[in-house]
Fold this protein.
Amino acid sequence: MSGILTLMRRFGADERGNFAMISAGLMTLLIGCAGLAIDLGTIFADRRKTQSTADLAAIVAAANLSNPVNAATATVTQNNYPASALVSVDTGTYTANSAIAPQSRFVTPAVGIPNAARVTLTTQTPLYFARYITGASHFNITTTATATSTEMATFAIGSRLLSVNGGVLNALLGSMLGTTLSLSVMDYNALISAKIDALDFLSALATRINLTGVTYSDVLSSNVKVGDLMAAALTTQQLTNGAGAATTALSTISQAVTGSSTKVSPGTLIDLGPFANLTVGQKPKVGASVSVFDLVNTVAQIANGSHQIATSVNFGLPGIANVSVIATIGERPVGSSWIAMGTQGVSVHTAQTRILATVNVLGSGSIASINLPVYVEVASGTATLNAVSCGHPNISTSQVTIGVTPGIVDAWIGNVTVADMTNFTTKPNPPPATLVSVLGIPITGLAHVGMGNTTSTNVNFSYSDIQAGTKKTVTTTNFLTSLTSSLLGDLTLNIAGIPIPGLGALVMSILSAVTSPIDQVLASLLSTLGIGLGQVDVWVLGIRCDGAVLVN
């Protein structure tokens, strides 16, 4: 027994071979670590590849939002992953706003029309050494990527001016701005031809009102005096086009409204959409070159609010002695601007407009003249960005599609009151108006016509149309060529119950002879206020076509 104990003590004290045993143990550990390192390296490499594939799939899906799943699936399989690796493709709305937490900028389902896509991808990496530790033969890798479409356009509605009448423009534009203007036709033509960049205008406005280090959103949400708006437009005009007739004319307008206390929110002029949070001075890849006259006229309309515009104008038209005008312009629908930048689904609207033109028609025979009160109401017209089709890689094949609905026209010959003009909550339903008195006997008349349709018409703008700033007109499907003729066709005369042979026929004969001049009066008045009878004008100011981009 003692021998056995002695042998055991000798074995415990013997240090020969310890290094070999320790080396064997360490070698096993090293081989295991090396194996794990290989597996981890494979996992990290596969994760990068999976993330790259998810990024590509998200970009392709965002560029094909009409069929994002098929687009993303094709990208996944082209990168040698099975289609089953694509877990989900979610479309939604992405808002590029630094004030919103990154994880909250993408919202699904979309608010309105989707502008972004989020892709989730799961792949498997085989384990070689780690399986003996984890018991699993593979490792699941899940990645996500979000991309948003950059197919955008800038477009505008209204602000038509078919022909320039200096007297009408001075009367109406001056009245809207609360001042007196005496510009010539040449001055107005120069303003129409002069172009400035809308973002340069906003930058000049920020400087003018002492806003520094702010975003466009801060400028757009402020309340600015009309004088500051015109001064900013003048600064931009001078920097862009230098001296000339347009600069001189704009300077005259700017000086005329210097003392005006009326304020306007620039956001009612321009909607920058996803670019509103850019710092003032930065410019997106989609431009907005606007006519100086369009800008001035739109500012004037918004500044006027629902106040009455009252003036008397001599158009110099045959058969018409004079025209007295009362006009009111309602507010645009909430959130709508004159110009908008954005993706599919963004809309702009014209303002509801009312005109009461009392036309003094020269008579004949026993009727020296007739006072014809023509009331015209044009409801808000709408233009919606329906599609931006980018031609890659040849941008000259790109086009923009705008869905346009003209405002419905409601017209009367009747006794429309001043109160009727300012009450935009209800439509007038006037009694007959006295057109003329013969031998103390009043002849009254009443007529009513309406025209309009609620179906949107798609209007396509080619790249050359966009570059040229071409305006296109949409006419309502049941537009009546002559509004005045239509009113006269419905006109019912009342001669106080006393039969006077031929008197009614004489009145109708006199009025029928001036249908064309009266149509010109109405068209001129409405076009000066930015709209047309049963028509609406739209144009595209810029397009962005540089593909979808990753976000978040």
